[in-house]
């Protein structure tokens, strides 16, 4: 470590110790490096009741093993240094998950011993800006999927339970993602990743049943349009579309095994002339070609359409509704391959009783058109009903 002449002079007469100066300067350097880092997160809990004996709600993402009891869903701890306004800005973001939902996320790396644990890396990427035009913002590492109306983070969604569209979408990727904002109205993203699946550092050519070439990768792109401020009551409305194509270690539900997969998405959120009212719509289409053992050519597709409505009634009270229709031809969360069609309606009331707390009550009804898909200890059912309370503390 280099010292200035004044410090060396004081050390020579015994006024200061070089060791103490070195420790102080090292401490200041660490404090400077950490000063821009933010620490945040949340604790997500729920209470759930599914009327009937032995019913379950494992048919949508993050619904597993939460029936008829009290639940810790997940704890998230986030460390981040956002990009500043500099031309060559750099930063990072780390989202760590602890709890049962960490197993469902499925990011356990290829080097992990055992199939699951109550820990997962949701995101961990280096953020970089390349000064080309308005600036290209890049993520290198593990990041959330670029498609979907709903977030992996439950507190950012209008409803507690996830939609069928979210269930069939990719969750996270390991790769590189670049985003460019052309102006206030239009932005686009493009990226490349190892696989469609969430497993960190996975490779398509490592798969036992359906190995690909070493050069085989997953590709993704999206565009976003935002209504400008001079659009009056429609200002801030968004239209979003994206596609992800690549290899997945397991198809939807994991029944047909690994294969190629393409996910298409289009969604919109529209501000309305009614104060506090927003409506939204989303459409997901999943097409996959899978292989299991010696059997090849197993193809399937699934699609889901959802309508959303959110109304901010008062400063503390908000009301949210979601209606959806999903059809799955091939592998599914229900374990059947015969033209599954399911309707679902979800109503959520959210009220800010405590500071920093999301508190909401939710009722959900799922109905199958062409069969009894909802399992229980007493047999399959046409309808599934859920009542839940969701409490999330954000820090």
Q: Could you please describe the fold and organization of this structure?
A:
It is built from four helices and 16 strands. The model has no long low-confidence stretch (mean pLDDT 86). It has a 16-stranded antiparallel barrel. With 395 residues, the protein is mainly beta. The chain starts with a helix and ends with a strand.
Summarize the structure.
The protein has 395 residues and is mostly beta strands.
Short key terms for the protein model shown above:
mainly beta, Porin, 16-stranded antiparallel beta barrel, 4 helices, 16 strands, 9% helix, globular
Stated plainly, the CATH topology of the largest domain is called Porin
- What distance lies between the first and last C-alpha atoms, to the nearest angstrom? 38 Å
Low-confidence stretches: none
Q: Which CATH first-tier class of the largest domain would you pick?
A: Mainly Beta
The helix/strand class is: mainly beta
Query: Roughly what is the average pLDDT, rounded to an integer?
Result: 86
Alpha-carbon Rg, integer = 24 Å
Strand content: over 45%
> Sheet with the most strands?
16 strands, antiparallel, barrel
Tell me the overall shape: globular
Q: Give the beta-strand count.
A: 16
Number of helices: 4
Strand order of the largest sheet: 1-2-3-4-5-6-7-8-9-10-11-12-13-14-15-16
User: What's the CATH superfamily of the largest domain, by name?
Assistant: Porin
